[in-house]
Every structure is written in structure tokens, then in C-alpha cells.
Amino acid sequence: MNSLHLKSYTRCKRKAWLDFKGKKSHEVWSPHKAIDKINQFKIFSEFCNGEIYTGLKACENGYQGVIGLKIKGNLFQNINAEILPQLLVKTKGKSKWGQYKYLPAVYKLGHKTTKEHLFDLAFCSILLESFQESKIEKGLVISTFDKKIKVEEIYLNKKLIKKVLNVLLNLNECLEGSIPEITEDRKKCTICSWQKFCDKEAKENGYLTDIDGIGSKTASLLKSKGIINTQALASYNEKQLGEKLSKFNDQKYEKACIFVKQAQAYISGETYFISNKNNTEDLLEKICSGFYIFDIESNPDEKHDFLYGFLKVNNLSIKKEDLIYEPILNLKNKKEEFYRQIIAILFSHKEWPVLHYGETEKIAIINIAKNLNFSFEEIDSLASRFIDLHTLIRKSWILPIKNYGLKTVSNWLGFEWVQKNVSGSKALYWWIQYQITENEIFLKKIIQYNKDDCLATLKIVEYLIKDQLKKN
Predict the structure, then answer these.
(1) Rounded distance, CA 404 to CA 414, Å?
(2) Residue 163: which CATH number?
(3) Which of 2, 22, 31, 432 could make an SS bond with 425 (beta carbons 3.0 to 4.6 A apart)?
(4) Span 294-309, pLDDT tens digits
(5) DSSP state of 332
């Protein structure tokens, strides 16, 4: 076992087992891992003033930062282990190499230092101590905040070392055993490279957390009431279920109805229309004279929107190939110029509604308007043009799908992206690659992806208004 297995194990036992024994053909490449590695190297390099070298020779030469070193050793009870330290940082002390030694360091995304970081440092210290023949009292957690490097010192006391040794024993037992159950907290699965493999099994076995709106806590509540899978939920009496969902207070009967209908849809493949104040009639009325579809690509860690994409739809009968798509790239982070381009597009058709999927786009435009010192009245007028199709479809339909994300809904409707296996995180990976290489091919990939996101949103618009079009 190695430190990567430990990292996986602290998140999900099944992931650790699959990383160790799973068929690699079932694993899907994750852009999150790649982005993490790039950010990690960038921060480590800055922290070590660019003095980062690879492998054992780097330790022997006493370089400030060392990466890419594998250290093997025996832990206890004949358990063989391997560490792959994210970074070793040179400090004062004495080791087999001379009057210096190395401390283990890990990269942290966000503000919270987790068990994952602590265990990684403690595990590394156990094998690193004997390898460099020097005591390790602490490890470092390196992160960035407001573009400044932050370093947290973690003291590796006996209590932490004992704790990680117990976890490593459990990990070893897990890796030697049969495949663990799928985790109840499926939210963790969204960035996992084994997600598709587990999703297939979860659907076959009727996991409750596959039903939209049911998390691990609600699933546990349902199981305690004897509802153990989606089949049991789908056949349950809605009123009786409502009585069991007291935690939802006044919404308990509404939630019960939605959960049962969602389970029935998921199993049968049927859809259920929810009558809701003629929302779709209002939508058709608003968009009949033309509308925009708007989608953003961003780097949330740097709070940087790098592409705003607008699809102009003059009327619903226009052919897809005749639609005008306008991408606005924020290459040099010149905010004023970027903002004015966006506002110019939106105000070229002041009466047009702006259709988007999720709340991000509306919030971004309101923030731009505030930055450009719009009055409260102007901001209200602009905000009133935005229509969130994610909210609208959830109010109008129960669909036979696992979640109501743009990809899931539009794929179910038969839409296909030109580029395969794409996602917002892959677009972010391409953006980072463009920043490093300045190769225009990455920009072309991002623009194609964003255009397809807009067309996928249009597919959902057409689905929402199809019944009203038939009536007309």
C-alpha cells in the first residue's frame, strides 16, 4: 500500500480498493487530478523559490524542494508500504546527507486542513525518518489565500502517529479483502475517476442516494423506516411516507410525493408533469420575439471567469447552423473592457430575456453591473430578464434521471457534445493548459465546449415549450 491509497481511503474505502485492485479499463481520466497536480507544482515552486528537483539525487545535493521521490519500507507486522511525498522541504538539522534534513509537505486547496492532510504527513514521516536517519517533529501544509502563500505547521505527535498506524492497519485489511460497499455519501463521487463504474452497480442495486434530493442522511432515515431501496420507495404510499418525514416539517408531504414519483420515474423511464402556474406558457410568451442563451466558464479557485458565451436565438424556427454564437474571452483579465463587451451584447437587444442553467450566470451579471456603477433600478431591470431553466424544469417535470444537471438532462433529451467526455472541469483544465502553453488549440476546445453547453440549454428550452408549441 502507498500514501495515495491512504488518501483515497480517508475519502472512500471503495476508492482505495479500486485504486489498488480495480480494472484500469473501468477508470475514467479525471481532470480534477490533473488540475490539482498543476496547481500543486505551481505553489510548491513558488514556495521553494523555483528550486525544485526530482528524486534521490535532489536530496543528496541538498536542494530546497524535492518531488517525485518514492520511499519503500516495512511498517509493522510485515506490512510493506511506500510513500510518495508531495514535497520534501529542506530545513536545519542533521541527516545521512549532512547538516540538513527534510520535512514532508502537502498542498491544501481551500481553508480547511483535513484528516487527509494530517494522515498524509504522519504516514510520510514514519518512513522518511528511517530513510534520512533523522527525527521529524513536524510537517507543513501549504496553501494560497488572496494569491499569497500560507504555511501551516503540523506537529506530528505520538497521538497522531498512533492514529495513522491504526488507519493503515485498517487500510491494509481493506485492500486484502473483497470490494467494499458503495459509499452512502454519493456527493463525494462527482469528481471520482471510478464514478461510472460505481453508478452502474448503484442503479442495479437500487441505491436510495441515486434518487435526486436524497442524500446520505435522508437515505439513512428511509432505511430506518424499512424503505431499503428505490424499488421499495417507488411502491410506497405517498401519504404514509409523508408521516415518516417529520424532519422536513411543513414540506414533508410535498417531499414524500416528489421522492416517490422520482423513484418511479427512475425505475420506469417515464416522466411526470408537475402542474405549476403555467410556467412553460410564460416562458414561450417571453421568448417568442427572440432571446439569449448564456453560459460561463470559470476558474472558481482564482475567482476568474475566462469565457462568457452568448447564443442569439432570433426565433424558434431558425436552424441550429444559422444561430449566432458569440464567445467573449477574458484572456488578460482586463475587467473593464471585458465587462463592457458583455453589457454591450445584453443591451443590443434590451427586451430579450436571458436564459441560463443554474444561478451562476445571473449572479455574475449582477456583479458586473455593480462594478460598472449601475443604479439599483438598472440592476433590477437587468436581473428581471434572467430565466433559470434549472429551476424551471424542476418545477415543471420529474424526469427519469439521477440529477438535474445540464449534462444529465440534455443527454437524456438526446443532445451530444461534439467533444467526448467533456465537463466544466475539463474546460478549466484546457484553460490552465492554454495559460501555460499559449497554444490556441486549447481556446478552440473551450469555445466549442461552451457553444455546445449553450445548444444543450436550447434543447431543454425546446423540451419545456414543446406542448405549448403543439397547442399553437
Answers:
(1) 15
(2) 3.90.320
(3) 31
(4) 999 998 888 889 999 9
(5) S
